[in-house]
């Protein structure tokens, strides 16, 4: 596979390691994870660049298509986020086990519970994050709406900057005041892939964010970043650089909508502008951000 992926390439998938093949199929007919109870199965979308394979687990629509990413190196894994619910987190655990490789690094990208609510279900994995993110998670967890994520609250701090995993350069970046107060992204310079999480949603309504002007400026800078050929996002399927323009356009519309006469009017404006989008639940968060 060449280093440049278009949207069709991402949906086709590529050859996978033997350990993952049982769960991960070509994403044109994406592999269902193991459905649990009344919640439908999520799907797994995978592609390889060089010696690194990227697996994106996408939760079902009922769980707002939130993602977790498993980055597979020659002899180890990196895990990004834990999804929101125990059933979806169990599917992430199953994918980890299917690779047959140990997790050497795992982290929670930001404080919003749809990304860490399932952490307690992923046994044997300790998640690093930043102190500010961990503090916000502790506050949210104390409300009792999700199983206490001890494997996050007792986890280490994630060093920001250039690192190396399995001989592959990985740059951990810290963005502030975008969709969340603090957000970690992981860039792979050699593969030209960046795990942006909730800096970008793909086909799902966005949360209103902290500072939409700064959020847009952050995405504009990424448009010229060589690493951003392929984006692994926080909600929805993997995407390409062009999705940054779509996200910028969405945030601009959302910023205008947030000036409407009411949260309901703002939600209606977003539905009208983006009729094909999912994640209706996320529009219900607008009152929490209303000035």
From TrEMBL:
Annotated source species: Pontivivens insulae
The organism's place on the tree of life at top rank: Bacteria
SMART domains: Lactamase_B
Signal peptide range: none
Gene3D superfamilies: Ribonuclease Z/Hydroxyacylglutathione hydrolase-like
Metallo-beta-lactamase domain boundaries: 65-235
The protein, known as: Metallo-beta-lactamase domain-containing protein
PANTHER family: BETA LACTAMASE, METALLO-BETA-LACTAMASE DOMAIN-CONTAINING
């Amino acid at each position: 596979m060449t280093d440049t992926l278009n949207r069709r390439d991402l949906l086709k998938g590529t050859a996978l390691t033997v350990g993952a093949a049982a769960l991960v199929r070509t994403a044109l007919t994406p592999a269902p994870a193991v459905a649990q109870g009344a919640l439908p199965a999520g799907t797994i979308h995978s592609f390889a660049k060089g010696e690194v394979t990227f697996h994106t687990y996408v939760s079902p629509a009922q769980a707002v298509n939130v993602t977790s990413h498993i980055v597979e190196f020659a002899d180890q894994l990196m895990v990004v986020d834990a999804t929101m619910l125990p059933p979806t987190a169990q599917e992430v655990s199953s994918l980890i086990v299917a690779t047959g490789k140990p997790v050497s690094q795992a982290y929670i990208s930001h404080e919003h519970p749809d990304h860490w609510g399932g952490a307690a279900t992923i046994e044997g994995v300790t998640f690093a994050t930043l102190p500010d993110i961990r503090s916000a998670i502790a506050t949210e967890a104390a409300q009792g709406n999700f199983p206490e994520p001890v494997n996050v609250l007792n986890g280490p701090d994630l060093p920001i900057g250039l690192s190396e995993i399995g001989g592959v350069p990985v740059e951990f970046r810290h963005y502030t005041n975008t969709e969340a107060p603090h957000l970690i992204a992981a860039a792979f310079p050699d593969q030209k892939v960046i795990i942006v999480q909730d800096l970008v949603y793909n086909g799902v309504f966005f949360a209103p964010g902290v500072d939409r002007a700064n959020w847009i400026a952050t995405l504009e800078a990424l448009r010229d970043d060589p690493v951003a050929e392929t984006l692994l996002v926080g909600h929805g399927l993997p995407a390409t650089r062009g999705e940054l323009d779509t996200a910028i356009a969405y945030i601009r519309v959302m910023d205008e909508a947030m000036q409407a006469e009411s949260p309901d009017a703002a939600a209606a404006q977003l539905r009208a502008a983006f009729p094909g989008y999912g994640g209706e639940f996320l529009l219900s968060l607008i009152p929490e951000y209303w000035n």
